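Possible race condition, two jobs.
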Amino acid sequence: MNNKSSHNGKTHHWTIVLIKRLILFGSWGYVLYRFIGPESINFSTFSFQKDTPSFLLYTTALLCLMGINWSLESLKWKISLSGFHQISFFKSVLGIILGLSVAIFTPNRSGEYIGRIWVLPKHTHIKAIAATIFASMNQLSVTFFCGIIALMVWQQNHTIPFIFDNEKSIKWIVIGGFFIIIVSLMALLLFKKKQLPEIKKHILTFIDVFFSYSFKKIFSIWGLSFIRYQIFVFQYWILLHFFNAPIPIFELYSGLGIMYLTMALLPILTFAEPAVRTALSLLFLGVFTTNEAGIISASIALWIINLVIPSLIGSILLNTQKSTNNA
């Protein structure tokens, strides 16, 4: 019995080590692919403020805003977990950074949940995933709220650069809905009956977590999400000035609002995210400036600052962490 337990323990240990190494190589491999691969980022378009004082000022401001951004996300996650598990701010920051190390090479950053729960004990994982989804939904609601306002403002002076066909859209929504229902039913049939109670238990756990938040907590999480959104806009504004493509803040807010809304609606594969982000920024910000190289540079730089740098740091930190799964 002891030998079997020892064998299982060793297997578990090496599985965790393997996962950590895969995440490390996945993060760094993806970044290297984007920088030196066949479809790498074209840095020849970069043109920026080259005098030393301006460069230092812009760089310091952007790095400080990156820190504030992820600190707010850490506080938001800490609040979302507080109903069932108390976590320190430092550990919350660590969870966010570890989550980014997985998010960078997974579709729509879906792997972020896996990375975050690494710092939590095993018995909290299901609730933690539910809490993380709840916090993400609040951030998404801010994106929709600001995006709809931006869309209404945009329509006053500009045409939407794509055609929205109501009849076709409704048809595809119905087809998509039926497809999701059929796939869900088939997935349920594949489970054995003895597994259904476990699935039901997890669903009920999600519902319990979602309905456990007080109005004060919801307001705090939504408020932090709203502040983070403003930081994204402010970072873009700074970068556009840095790359000699200034856009007035009101017009920028309108263009970015629609861009972020569009990105939220698209099922973007991680490998395509920089390209999609760049294309959309040209589409919605190119209306306000002729410096397309500046827009491209700002878009890529923001991706590097907000995602690439923290995710690479996270991949290194992950490989120095001991698992809390058994806690």
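Job #2 (started ~2 s after job #1):
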Amino acid sequence: MGKKLALSLILALILWGIALPAFAEGGKVLFGESFTLRKGETYVGDVVIFGGNLNLEEGGLLEGDAAVFGGIAKIAGTLKGDLAVFGGGVWVESTGRIEGDVAIMGGKLEKEEGAVITGEVTEMGGLSWPKGPFFLPVPLYPRYRPFEDLFGWLLGRGVRFFLTLLALMAASVLIISLWPEQVQAVAETVTKAPLESGGIGLAAIVLGVPVGLVLLIAACLGLLVWLALLIAGLFGLTALAYEVGKRVLERAGASETSPIFQVLLGVALVQVLDLIPCLGSLLLLVVYSLGIGAVILSRFGTYRGYWAKEGAGGASGIS
């Protein structure tokens, strides 16, 4: 069972995009977050953590399997299930109890006297973390080593970025394939009226979230408001990605490329903004504000009158 669990961990890392829904069924999937059960708390279900830590405090109970990618599992309570950890370690305190198998890749198991593990333990090396000088007393060694936490954060951030990128690419390809003319019209609106698009889009975001919450509480209609905002955001992102990808390729001398390829390139370039520390979220807010505003002004790409009336003869200029 231990070898099987270790193998499943490797396969999960390679095929997480396929296996993730199975892990998530009836449980939790966390990205860049830690999962903690305090004394007296119980959770029933599987837990999958990317770039975070699993903390079971004394008196806490987790009834289900747990998988941690790029983080540390600290067990002081009871885990009734299997535990798999990649790129991190497992610390089982004296009060900790794991009623299942434990598989660790790229880390090690630290077990205090009195800790109980009823199943098999499989450790596969590959990563080593810096240790303190041998003459330092043991209590000074941090249980959550900064190098492991940094690795976990980077892994979780990378997984979240890749998942988001794939989802946005899939949605954008679908939109450009079904409504190519409307997407081009929205992109044209952004270029012709950027200030108006940004202002209206920002107002829609700022007002849409609380209005949707009020309607959700009052009449369960808030989901419709949020759904409309989401669709407008995806449509606007597709239009902006199309325009960005097209201009980049034109400057590179590859002007005759398919709109789908232009959108894919644009989505990738736009999503890279999310990796910029501090400013990334603000820049993405600007991007989505422009897109949503252009969608509203152009009525989802069916109306060019707002900006065309300022142009010569109202020509759309769409190639």
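The chain has nine helices and 16 strands.
Logs attached separately.
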